[in-house]
Amino acid sequence: MMTLDLSLWRWALLLMVGGSVLIGGRGACAQPAPGPAARPQPGIDVQDYDFALTLSDTTDRIEGTATVHVRIDADTLTAVRLDLIGRAPGGKTGMRVRSVSEAGRAVSYRHADDLLRIRPPDLAAGQTRTFRIEYAGVPDDGLIIGTNQHGDRTFFGDNWPNRARHWLPVVDHLSDKATVEFRVTAPARYDVVSNGALVADSVAGTTRHTLWRTDVPLPPKVMVIGVADFAVDTAGTVDGVPVQSWVYPEDRGPGLKDLGQAPPILRFFEENLGPYPYAKLANVQSTTRYGGMENAAAIFYSETAVADGEDDTSLLAHEIAHQWYGNTVTEADWPHLWLSEGFATYLTGLYLEHARGAAALRQYMTAARRQVVQFHDANPDTPLVDTTYSDPNELLNTNPYQKGGWVLHMLRREVGTDTFWRGLRAYYEHYRDGNASTRDFRAVMEDVSGQDLEAFFDQWTRRPGHPVIEGTWRHDAAAGECVVTLRQTQDEPPFEVPVQVALGESPSRTTTLFMRGREAQSRVDCPRVPSSVTLDPNTDLLAELSMRRAQ
Questions:
Q1: Which positions ≥6 away from 151 have C-beta within 8 Å?
Q2: pLDDT the model gives residue 307
Q3: CB within 10 Å: which end of the chain, N or C, has fewer?
Q4: How far apart are CA 547 and CA 286, in angstroms?
């Protein structure tokens, strides 16, 4: 892994471009302790969650009622299994289930080993069963209860990757998506933000009752609430979608200015990717351990990232891009994380290209390439689609972020910019509200482009590494030509790649050599000795590149 202290910055992977921080990764102030990845139970599909939660200023204990609507897809089931971290004997944190019922009747259950096994009678395929779970406890993770940087009490959901189970009974895997409703009862002094649309908000005496609901299916990793004292502002609307900023009152001025950059970013993505999927976009200052967490329609940003005087354009763009890829189209399983993080990373670069010009994207990709090279040097056997992990947090590295972004950048060059955008839109439309794998994405791009992309995807997503290309050139004065020779020197087998060569400057002459093996050579019309010969002048190839004049 690259030598980078993840605690130093708001995200893990920093890209410095022209003095601005261009972000291409999640990063963390503190990584969660490793734990096994939750796996979905075959034969069930949760359709909807309704969570009623009571929060208090006098204790960190939460009182919860979860109403879970589950579709049964198999006749062989004897139980429905949900993830819920239990309270260990003698422990102070964890959840205890008080009761489970269905249609007002008690249902047999067992809560052990952090699993809630519900055993109703007569489970059969085709049924939709509704269970009401009453529980309580002090969450040790997932719902972060504490104080913010100003010393004020706050409550923030922080579920990525599979930490919802610390405070919500769920199928805690990104492949089981469901609609969700949060009914929050809290002291009246707090404001409450969550996914979806605000349905009800009222104060009775010293208590506030708030109801948020989304009818767009979400993975549990992005189902959250945020409860704090907020200053709230509407930064604008984009095609009828309100773009809100929620910041601590102490950070009102700079915070609202910082998050107020969101509307043009949302507009760019909506124009190019398709309709924004949610009822609103709330950008929220929070105590998330991440620099930015893409919770659906309620993005949480690190409290130190907001109003710190830094340019957060890239941070906002990365998280807003996730509303399409990661939230609405969700990777089928963790090895395909690049379909979320690589997309958000590259779409950030595309927004910078739109807003600041082509040079900004080239600088962005150059910095990303350096990080990919550094990571590969330390992890030479790790492919983009990595199935060797034991905990999803192990995948928080350069591969799904910067290398994933680079794969998309090269795919854009492979199929053409217009076709690339059409492919992204088609992928979104086809897998909206569902899950997709790398193979699924490839199939869409092949359909849209009319090209066979198997070799491209195999070498860039399944193989580790990248080409290391050493070039030499010499001028043949008698022939009026330059002889350019390229050789791949990496330990891995050769990659099949096009390599652009530029001769001279302002303007340069370019030619492309397609490498199908270790070596390629070309003779280029060159009446005079060029002032320079460079490889990949437009930053189109993920490779280590060098060029020298032959002696």
A1: none
A2: 85
A3: C
A4: 48
